[in-house]
């Protein structure tokens, strides 16, 4: 079990108020909230890329203070090495661990099969679409067989159709591998489509404001009535939070902007704040 115990973070100001969270092995969790509420900071603390100011993160009772092979990470930018082909990119972490080339290639090929890119093993990153690059990034993050996959807005830069295709793909990967997934997003629809538990963040300072369970089976279909109902429920929860941020940032201009504010669950909360 992953435990986040009383974690806080200060940069110039307090970014995270004490956060407590327990995540069971195999859960699919989303961190959802407006821009700047500390979602990425908390994910980076779990990854060991940032240190908490106070509190700790534990995995099966062991305190985590640095990155480790039991956690794989996928960012918004795929970050592939342009001088390595697809297969070599996925094999890279395995080669670094000292595995022989043959073993690393075999494992990388299995992962490319999982993300449906076997045919592109010998392609170069610049020859791939955005969605394909992200599939390579997911395969690479899975190379060391981590227990936990940490994903920081991995589909935010993709067009809508590709993003929807990646939602299907990721649910399939999650079901096939049984990994724990923690997925950061601004997008309510994306969170509801993917996660079984959604943690809604409040801002200034960042903290968990509400939790929603999504009890629909996977793969989830677009337009499912239960999911739409939940989207609206979450939107109501977040509206207050978004208004708070807008009021602070826009001051007197807030009333002008408010009338044109598109309160819709499929809109990225971050882009209006
Ligand atoms: N390394 C850093 N140094 C100083 N301030 C930082 C650093 N990283 C994040 N912050 C600040 O912490 C706050 C939370 O940032 P964070 O990226 O965690 O939010 P977020 O909810 O993930 O937002 P977004 O969705 O826009 O990425 C922001 O005010 C940000 O400017």
Automatic annotation (TrEMBL):
Under Pfam families, the record lists: ABC_tran (PF00005)
> Is Nucleotide-binding one of the keywords UniProt gives this record?
yes
EC?
A: 7.6.2.9
Question: Which keywords does the record carry?
Answer: ATP-binding, Nucleotide-binding, Transport
Task: Show the PROSITE patterns listed in the entry.
Answer: ABC_TRANSPORTER_1, ABC_TRANSPORTER_2
Ranges where the ABC transporter domain occurs: 2-230
Q: Which GO terms describe its molecular function?
A: ABC-type quaternary ammonium compound transporting activity; ATP binding; ATP hydrolysis activity
Q: Which InterPro entries match?
A: AAA+_ATPase, ABC_transporter-like_ATP-bd, ABC_transporter-like_CS, ABC_transporter_ATP-bind, P-loop_NTPase
Question: From which domain of life does this come?
Answer: Bacteria
By its UniProt entry, which SMART domains does this protein fall under? AAA
Q: Which top EC class is named for this enzyme in its record?
A: translocase
Mind telling me what this protein is named? Answer: ABC-type quaternary amine transporter
Species of origin reads Carboxydocella sporoproducens DSM 16521
């Amino acid at each position: 079990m992953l435990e986040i115990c009383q974690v806080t973070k200060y940069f110039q100001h307090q970014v995270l108020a004490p956060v407590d969270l327990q995540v069971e092995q195999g859960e699919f969790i989303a961190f959802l909230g407006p821009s700047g509420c500390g979602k990425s900071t908390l994910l980076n603390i779990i990854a060991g890329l940032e240190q908490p100011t106070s509190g700790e993160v534990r995995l099966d009772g062991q305190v985590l203070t640095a990155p480790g092979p039991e956690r794989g990470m996928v960012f918004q930018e795929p970050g592939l090495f342009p001088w390595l082909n697809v297969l070599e990119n996925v094999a890279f972490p395995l080669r670094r661990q000292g595995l022989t080339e043959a073993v690393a290639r075999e494992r990388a090929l299995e992962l490319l099969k999982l993300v449906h890119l076997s045919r592109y093993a010998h392609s170069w990153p610049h020859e791939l679409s955005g969605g394909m690059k992200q599939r390579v990034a997911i395969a690479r993050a899975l190379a060391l067989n981590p227990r936990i996959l940490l994903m920081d807005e991995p589909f935010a830069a993709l067009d809508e159709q590709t993003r929807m295709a990646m939602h299907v793909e990721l649910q399939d990967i999650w079901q096939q591998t049984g990994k724990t997934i923690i997925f950061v997003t601004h997008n309510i629809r994306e969170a509801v489509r993917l996660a079984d538990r959604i943690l809604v963040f409040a801002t200034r300072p960042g903290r968990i404001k509400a939790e929603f369970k999504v009890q629909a089976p996977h793969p989830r279909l677009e337009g499912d009535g239960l999911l739409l109902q939940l989207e609206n429920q979450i939107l109501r929860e977040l509206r207050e939070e978004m208004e708070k941020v807008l009021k602070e940032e826009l001051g007197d201009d807030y009333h002008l902007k408010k009338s044109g504010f598109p309160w819709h669950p499929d809109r990225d909360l971050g882009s209006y704040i």
